[in-house]
Amino acid sequence: MRVAGSIDYSKNVIDWVNEKERYNQANLARFVAKSMADTKFMDLTIRLGVPYSYVHQGNCEHAVVFTDIRLIDSHDHQNRNDYPQLSFQAKIRRRKCRICDLYPAKWVTYGDRVSTENPSFWCEHCYNQAHYLSTNPPKLLYTDYEVFPYYHE
Questions:
Q1: Buried b (16+ CB within 10 A) or exposed e, 42-64
Q2: What's the confidence (pLDDT) of residue 1?
Q3: 51 pairs with which residues across the strands?
Q4: What is the tens place of the pLDDT at every residue in 113-125?
Q5: Overall pTM > 0.85
Q6: So what's the pLDDT on residue 42?
Q7: Do 65 and 49 contact (CB within 8 A), yes or no?
Q8: Can you give the pLDDT at residue 2?
Q9: CA–CA distance, 110 with 89 (Å, rounded to integer)
């Protein structure tokens, strides 16, 4: 780990794959965790068109797909620091709260009885006002819905 005390997010995936020998299934293998600081692209076994997941800071996940690999020639950038080259980046779409239409959504609910939409996007303030009694500590009004943190699309 680059910083002492950091969480190894690969551990759960590696343990799951090793459990019941899932590494024998198609598209799975015996995975190992390596330091990003010490790993270069040339050290990786990359399959074209296969989505890879890069997770950091606990909740920030990036999908990475390699679409083309080739040797450098005289028409390419000759500086190693120009690589890898980004060929596409999706525009981040941040939804606003559907109640106040002012603040960015922090929560998304499914099957929520107080919402006219499914899914429904809520800022922190509106979500708390609609779902909790203002007691100390706050008490959840009902639980027959699903709620997840919303980051962006």
A1: eeeeeeeeeeeeeeeeeeeeeee
A2: 57
A3: 65
A4: 999 999 999 999 9
A5: no
A6: 82
A7: yes
A8: 64
A9: 28
Q: What is the pLDDT of residue 96?
A: 92
The mean pLDDT value for 9-22 works out to 85
Give yes or no for a cis peptide into 138 (omega within 30° of 0): no
In contact, 122 and 102? CB cutoff 8 Å:
no
Strand 120-122 relative to strand 132-133, pairing: unpaired
Interatomic CA distance for residues 93 and 151, integer angstroms:
10
Query: Is residue 63 within 8 Å of 53, Cβ to Cβ?
Result: yes
**Exposed / middle / buried, residue 150 (Cβ in 10 Å: 0-12, 13-18, 19+):** buried
> What are the start-end ranges of the H helices in 6-147?
10-18, 124-131
Q: How does residue 37 score in pLDDT terms, banded at 50, 70 and 90?
A: confident
Closest of 118, 124, 112 to residue 149, by C-alpha: 124
Query: How far apart are alpha carbons 147 and 109 in whole angstroms?
Result: 4
Q: Distance between CA atoms of 130 and 107, rounded to whole angstroms?
A: 12
